[in-house]
Structure formats: structure tokens, C-alpha cells
Write a structure and sequence with these properties.
mainly alpha; 68% helix; 0% strand
Length: 435
């Protein structure tokens, strides 16, 4: 058991433990944990990011820790207390079963490997827990779900989501704060089965499938899929209709196509992601500095994204600009966001100026661009830089919640999966007695 592997699992479990506890509450300790994770990730990237192989025994310990966290740490849900405990039990039991599967003997060609069995159990646990949360909470009292449901209905009627007013929304009532393809991607689930969250569940499974394929189903990929599928707090994300699974699916699809030598085709999922939520655009300068993708494909991505959002912009440019840019820039800080911005307000009574937030994000973005341009790293390290940029951007912002931090964890998992396809062939075969 290497120290690097133990540190990776400790940070992973600690990070998601803090995130599960963060919904919906602000605590300085949560900000400290997330900040420490950012510092450790940044340090690892400066030194040359290479996720360590995780022995089976250590992975099992991590899964058992996730089971304990799920049971012991409160998580947010609109379901009844009894239903919430049942949802926790589903995830915890899945973690325990996945950990037990890792103790199986190595299979021959006719039998699946223990890591593959554990990954399959973890994914089935994620699907079962998410489906149960959706079925138990038919109408979550959150503006994200209301917005996506009614925007999907509006699409079916040919309405412009940026001029609609949301009925019975507990939050925002007169704005669609996402780019239009968020609604386009989830609308079929609303039309066919009545709830956009089924589309988000499917997109999460697509992201996990791309993650497994990225590492060719080897140890790193299976470890990444297992850890992300049962990460603490995932049920809350599924119930609340948070949209980050579509972004992870877009980036995972992009990474898989790049890995398979289809970099121009990789423009398509990345463009769809950029046409869905605004903050993926901050990653494009880093990708422009990476020769395996390059500035021409970044320009093509931006162009295709522009084409995808053009109909809504042409229909009412002022309404779209208001909902997706000016409203968010001027939006008031939410008191239970766990960011350094809110920590300054809560702990110091000081509101950082907006330019300072922008300066910090710009500094990290420039650092990532310079490092990528000079090193031309492999896909594993590149994904780590993308994760760091998004992590810092979330950490210093006015708003930073479980879903944004989950996407960062997803990118770290994707990096771990990518390492499984690039370097594990050069590692010694895993000794069952040691793993």
C-alpha cells in the first residue's frame, strides 16, 4: 500500500464527506477541506500529476468509509426521514457489497475480475439509489427542477425559454440561467416519462461508461468508476436535478474520442457541453494550448457552440443575455455557499470585490495554460489541470455548491481512468496477495 494511494483515497473520501455535509449549510470547516483539496491537487499538478494505482484492499477500505459517511453524515433530501434512511441504506449496502467483491479471487478469462464486479455493483447502486430518490420525491421544491420541467414543456410548444415565467418556483421565477442545450438534452425525458431527472441519470451512466472505456476497463478506470458512482451525496444530486452529469458526459465523451484518435469528432460533445452551461468555456484556453487538440479545434468548438445557441439568441438577444450573463454576474451571494468568498463574508465581515475573484481565476487559468503549453502533458495530467481550474473558479465564487464540486471530482476520476489506459501496461501485474 503506497502512501500516495492512501493520500488519494483519504482526500477523496474527505472531500465528498464535506460535500455531503454542505447541502444546505455553510461551515468554515467545509471550506477548509475543499481549499486543502485544491492546494493538494495544485501541488500534485506542479510536480507532474500521475494518479497512483490503488490496491484492492485500499479501495475496499475507501468503499467502507463511503458507506459509513453515507449512514453517519446527514444528507439533504425532500423525502421523509424514514425514506431518507432507506436511501442511505441503499448506497451503504452497495458500498459494502462492492468492497466484498474486491475480496474475490482473480478470475480467469471466463470469469469477471473483482474490480469489474465491484464497479458493476457500484454503478447498479447509483442507478437504484437515484431512481428511488426520483420516485420518492416526485416534485422536489427546488427552482432547478421547476425550471427544467417547464422549459421542456415550453420547447414542445415552440416557446422561448428565455421569455418564460416559471410557475410555483421556490426560487428564480423569470429567468432561465443555463444555456439552451441544457433544456434540449433533458426535454425528451420530460416528454416521454414526465421527469427531466431520468435524462440526467442516463447522462451520468453515459459519463461512467465513457470513463470505463477511456481506461480500457483496466484497474484505474474501474477504480474511478467505482469511487464516483458511490461518492457520498450523489443521491442528493440526483434528487435535486442538478445538471453537472451532462457536463461530465460531454467532457468524458470528448476525452474518449481524443484518446481513440478522433480529435475532430471530439469537438461535437465538447461543443454540446459548452452550449449547455457557461462555465465550460473557461476550459477552452487550456485545451487550445494542448497540441493534441489545439486552437483550431477550440475555434471549431466555439463556432459549433455558437451555432447551437444561435436560434435562441436571434429570437431575443436581450432576454438571453440577461438570463445567462448579467443576472448571474449581479446575483446576490447565497448564504449557504461553501466558498472562500462566503467565508470572507461570514468570518471576516468583508465582501471581496468582484475583480479579485476574476483575478484569482485568471491567474490559475494562465498558470494552467502556461504549464500545458510548455509540458504538452498526456491526457491524464491535462484532465487534472481542467479540474483545478474549475475547482478554483468555484472556490472563489459567490456561489459554490455540491454539484459544481462534484464535477471537479468527476474530472479527477476521469484523470484516474485515463491513467489506467496510458501507464498501467508498464506497471507490474497486481499481486493478489498484496492487492
Amino acid at each position: 500500500m503506497s502512501a500516495a494511494s492512501a493520500l488519494l483515497l483519504t482526500v477523496w473520501v474527505g472531500y465528498f464527506t464535506a460535500l455531503q455535509w454542505s447541502v444546505v449549510r455553510y461551515r468554515l470547516g467545509i471550506v477548509v477541506v475543499v481549499t486543502a483539496a485544491a492546494v493538494l491537487l495544485g501541488t500534485a499538478l506542479v510536480r507532474g500529476w500521475r494518479p497512483p494505482a490503488v490496491p484492492r484492499g485500499l479501495l475496499a477500505a475507501g468503499l467502507l468509509s463511503c458507506a459509513l459517511v453515507t449512514e453517519a453524515v446527514p444528507f439533504f433530501s425532500y423525502t421523509t426521514p424514514g425514506e431518507r434512511r432507506a436511501l442511505a441504506h441503499v448506497t451503504a449496502v452497495g458500498c459494502v457489497l462492492a468492497a466484498a467483491a474486491l475480496a474475490l479471487p482473480d478470475g480467469r478469462r471466463a470469469r469477471p475480475q473483482p474490480r469489474a464486479v465491484a464497479a458493476a455493483i457500484a454503478v447498479l447502486t447509483f442507478i437504484a439509489g437515484s431512481a428511488a430518490a426520483i420516485l420518492l420525491d416526485r416534485a422536489p421544491r427546488i427552482d432547478v427542477w421547476v425550471t427544467l420541467q417547464q422549459a421542456s414543456d415550453g420547447l414542445a410548444r415552440g416557446q422561448n425559454m428565455y421569455t418564460m415565467t416559471w410557475h410555483d418556483s421556490p426560487g428564480i421565477q423569470d429567468a432561465f440561467t443555463y444555456l439552451p442545450w441544457t433544456a434540449v438534452l433533458v426535454a425528451p425525458a420530460r416528454w416521454l416519462v414526465g421527469d427531466v431527472r431520468w435524462a440526467l441519470l442516463l447522462l451520468a451512466v453515459v459519463a461512467l461508461a465513457c470513463m470505463a472505456a477511456l481506461g480500457r476497463g483496466r484497474r484505474g478506470a474501474l477504480t474511478a468508476v467505482t469511487l464516483l458512482a458511490v461518492a457520498p451525496g450523489t443521491i442528493t444530486q440526483s434528487e435535486q436535478a442538478w445538471t453537472e452529469p451532462m457536463l461530465l458526459a460531454a467532457i468524458a465523451g470528448w476525452a474518449l474520442l481524443v484518446r481513440r484518435g478522433h480529435a475532430w469528432w471530439a469537438v461535437v460533445p465538447l461543443a454540446v457541453g459548452c452550449a449547455s452551461k457557461q462555465h465550460l468555456a473557461v476550459l477552452l484556453p487550456v485545451l487550445a494550448c494542448w497540441q493534441a487538440f489545439g486552437w483550431r479545434r477550440v475555434v471549431a468548438t466555439a463556432g459549433l457552440s455558437g451555432v447551437l445557441v444561435l436560434p435562441w439568441f436571434v429570437a431575443d438577444p436581450a432576454a438571453m443575455w440577461h438570463d445567462t450573463v448579467s443576472l448571474l454576474v449581479g446575483f446576490h451571494p447565497i448564504r449557504f455557499a461553501n466558498t472562500l468568498y462566503l467565508a470572507a463574508r461570514h468570518e471576516l465581515g468583508w465582501t471581496p470585490p468582484f475583480w479579485l475573484t476574476g483575478l484569482v481565476v485568471l491567474a490559475v487559468l494562465v498558470t494552467a495554460c502556461v504549464a500545458v503549453r510548455r509540458r504538452q502533458p498526456d491526457l491524464t495530467e491535462l484532465l487534472g489541470w481542467l479540474a483545478l481550474v474549475l475547482l478554483v473558479a468555484t472556490l472563489v465564487n459567490k456561489q459554490g455548491f455540491y454539484n459544481q464540486y462534484w464535477l471537479v471530482g468527476g474530472l479527477v476520476a476521469l484523470s484516474l481512468a485515463a491513467s489506467g489506459g496510458e501507464v498501467l501496461d508498464r506497471l507490474p501485474r497486481e499481486n493478489p496477495a498484496q492487492a
